[in-house]
Structures are given as structure tokens and as C-alpha cells.
């Protein structure tokens, strides 16, 4: 224990008391007996405990504020999640403070430090691309080890013990690919991102699983991995011209729109010559021409679920640490970019 940085969680475990008791004792609270206080303070001094400024806000000091960190404000999905969080939290008397990591690991860490410095009761967040790529989750570990509740949504990691809420991305891509296969499509292109994105990786798995279940080989030539931030339309055009698919599955809405633009420029008809399905079911998909069949991720429900899980944790008197993962079921919304089954 001497080697690693000591946390409230370590002290609580060592002395067989709750994290809340340790926190109060170190603040010299009158609620804690003198004996317990002295024992905790002596132990903390012995192991040179220093409260981390990332985790000053603790359960015994409610602010009625929830910190939300999202990677992107442009994507319709994240705006619907925020709406869900706000609806539920406001009804329970909580304020929501939203910060943007802008897909940056550093910005995510700075946002966490700022919010955890006594101003919030807990976090709801989706990991930035930078964090997923770097696979460095120490800032999350510090927060959870200090007893601050956290709920991860959509982009999550198994490295952190906390509540999580996500959509079944494998199932979503499976249903979408199956819809294309049922139309008689056999050359289905996948427009995806780099593998470090947990959601893209799972959507890739669903795509491959559907092809295999249909008795088809997975052809790597039909998969284009694109950088997440800078969309390269020329690369999409070159790829689609090369492989000439009869269907496109896109792991997000933007790639799907670009893909449709490319095939329409070639004079192909959507959906007669080529069917297109994307993820998210946002405004772009609804108002595109033709409108795009989409896998709905139910962002609002995801936000409400995350807020409910967090507030239950914040208000719980139970010191036992139990975590759950809620998996929401996706829905395929059929529109004009796919053939209607008769």
C-alpha cells in the first residue's frame, strides 16, 4: 500500500469503515466519534494521504449538481442524451452541468478536475476518442476510488467499475445487415472508424455475424476504416468506385450521407440500385433525400436511464459497492433508402 497513492477507499477498507466516515473524519466532522476520528487521521498521516483535487466533492456534501461530459455536441445522438438526462434530473431537483471534451483526452481530464472540485455529486460521461485511443483511464479511477459515483454511457470501458448504460451495438448492426441480406443484397460495404472505438468495434461484430449466419464470407475489401474527425469524401468515393457494392452499412449518420452522395453522383438510384442504412437516426437521416433507414440508439432513454442510475447512487445510504450495466435494445427505422418488404 505504501507504493501506490493512497485513497479514501484504501483507508476505508483498511479500517473497516465507510468511505463517507473516512471523509468526515478527515474534515474533523462532529458526526464522527473522537476515537474513530483519531484512528482515521493517524492512519492517513502515517500513509501520507493527500486529498486529490479531482475528488474533493463527496457523498456527504450534496450540491444537487450532476456533471455531464460528452465528446461531441454536433452529433444529434449526444444532444438527445443530454435532453434525457436533463428531463429526469430536473424532475428530481438536480441541475445538470454539461462539458465538452471535444474528443480530447486532455480536455476530458481538465473537465473532470474542474467539475469534481467540490461542485458536483456525480458524473455521467461518454469517453472521448482520445481516451479510448490512449486507453488511459486513471482520471476515471481516481474519481471512483474517492467515492464519487459515475455512470458511463455509449462509449464505455471494462477497466472502470461503475454503472454503465449502452445500446446493444452488435444487435443493431446485425439487424441492419440482415435487412440488407433479406433484400437480396450480397455485396454490403461497411463504412466504419478505427477499431479503438468500442461502439464501431461492436457494430463491426454485428455486421460480420449477420454475414456468417447467412453463409457468406466476410470480405475485408468491403470494409473501409475512416478517421473519426476528418471525413475524407474522396477516400469514400475511391473505395465505393473500386468495390461497386449493392448496399452500404454506415456505423454513423455522417458516413452514410457521404456514401449516398457519392453513389448518387454516379447516377445510381437509392434504393433501386443500392440500399443504405446508417446508425443514430438523427435529423440528417430524416431529412436526407431519400430519407435514410437508420438504427435508432434511443439517446433520450439512454440519458434518462443514466440519470436515474446516478441519482440512485448519490442518494443511496448503502455503502456496499454494486454496479450494473443496462443494455438498451436498438430499433431499425425503415425509410426510403432501403427497399420496402412486401
Major beta sheet summary: 6 strands, parallel
According to DSSP, the number of beta strands is 12
Remind me, CATH topology of the largest domain?
A: Rossmann fold
The first-level CATH class of the largest domain is given as Alpha Beta
Q: What are the low-pLDDT stretches, counting only 5+ consecutive residues below 50?
A: 53-60
By CATH's scheme, which homologous superfamily of the largest domain applies?
Response regulator
Number of domains: 3
Side by side, the strands of the main sheet go: 2-1-3-4-5-11
Number of helices: 13
Distance between the termini: 66 Å
Strand content: 15-25%
CATH architecture of the largest domain: 3-Layer(aba) Sandwich
Radius of gyration, whole Å: 24 Å
Q: What percentage of residues falls in helices of 4 or more residues?
A: 40-55%
Note down, in words, how this protein is organized.
With about 350 residues, this protein is of the alpha/beta class. The chain folds into 3 domains: about 10-50, no CATH class; about 65-165 and about 300-330, 3-Layer(aba) Sandwich (Rossmann fold), CATH 3.40.50; about 170-295, Response regulator (Rossmann fold, 3-Layer(aba) Sandwich), CATH 3.40.50.2300. The chain contains 13 helices and 12 strands. The chain has a 6-stranded parallel beta sheet, with helices on both faces. It has a 6-stranded mixed beta sheet with strand order 7-6-8-9-10-12, sandwiched between helices. α1 crosses α2, α4 (about 75-90) packs parallel to α13 (about 300-315) and α8 (about 170-180) packs parallel to α9. The radius of gyration is 24 Å and the shape is elongated. The N and C termini lie far apart (about 65 Å).
Amino acid at each position: 500500500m505504501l507504493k501506490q497513492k493512497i485513497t479514501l477507499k484504501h483507508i476505508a477498507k483498511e479500517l473497516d469503515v465507510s468511505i463517507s466516515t473516512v471523509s468526515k473524519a478527515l474534515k474533523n466532522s462532529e458526526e464522527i466519534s473522537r476515537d474513530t476520528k483519531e484512528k482515521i487521521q493517524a492512519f492517513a498521516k502515517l500513509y501520507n494521504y493527500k486529498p486529490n483535487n479531482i475528488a474533493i466533492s463527496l457523498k456527504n456534501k450534496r450540491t444537487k449538481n450532476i456533471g455531464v461530459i460528452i465528446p461531441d455536441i454536433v452529433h444529434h445522438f449526444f444532444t438527445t442524451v443530454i435532453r434525457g438526462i436533463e428531463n429526469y434530473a430536473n424532475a428530481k431537483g438536480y441541475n445538470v452541468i454539461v462539458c465538452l471534451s471535444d474528443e480530447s483526452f486532455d480536455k476530458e481530464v481538465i473537465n473532470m478536475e474542474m467539475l469534481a472540485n467540490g461542485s458536483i455529486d456525480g458524473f455521467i460521461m461518454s469517453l472521448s476518442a482520445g481516451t479510448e485511443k490512449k486507453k488511459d483511464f486513471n482520471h476515471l479511477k481516481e474519481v471512483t476510488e474517492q467515492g464519487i459515483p459515475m455512470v458511463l454511457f455509449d462509449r464505455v470501458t471494462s477497466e472502470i467499475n461503475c454503472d454503465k448504460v449502452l445500446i446493444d451495438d452488435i444487435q443493431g448492426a446485425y439487424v441492419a445487415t440482415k435487412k440488407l441480406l433479406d433484400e437480396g443484397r450480397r455485396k454490403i460495404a461497411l463504412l466504419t472508424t478505427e477499431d479503438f472505438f468500442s461502439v464501431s468495434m461492436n457494430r463491426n461484430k454485428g455486421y460480420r455475424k449477420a454475414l456468417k449466419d447467412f453463409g457468406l464470407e466476410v470480405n475485408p475489401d468491403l470494409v473501409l476504416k475512416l478517421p473519426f474527425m476528418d471525413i475524407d469524401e474522396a477516400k469514400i468515393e475511391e473505395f465505393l468506385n473500386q468495390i461497386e457494392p449493392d448496399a452500404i452499412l454506415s456505423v454513423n449518420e455522417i458516413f452514410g450521407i457521404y456514401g449516398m452522395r457519392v453513389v448518387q453522383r454516379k447516377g445510381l438510384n437509392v434504393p433501386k440500385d443500392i440500399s443504405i442504412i446508417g446508425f443514430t437516426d438523427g435529423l440528417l437521416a430524416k431529412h436526407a433525400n431519400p430519407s435514410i433507414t437508420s438504427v435508432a440508439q434511443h439517446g433520450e432513454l439512454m440519458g434518462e436511464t443514466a440519470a436515474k442510475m446516478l441519482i440512485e447512487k448519490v442518494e443511496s445510504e448503502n455503502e456496499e459497492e454494486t454496479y450494473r450495466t443496462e443494455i438498451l435494445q436498438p430499433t431499425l427505422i425503415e425509410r426510403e433508402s432501403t427497399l420496402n418488404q412486401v
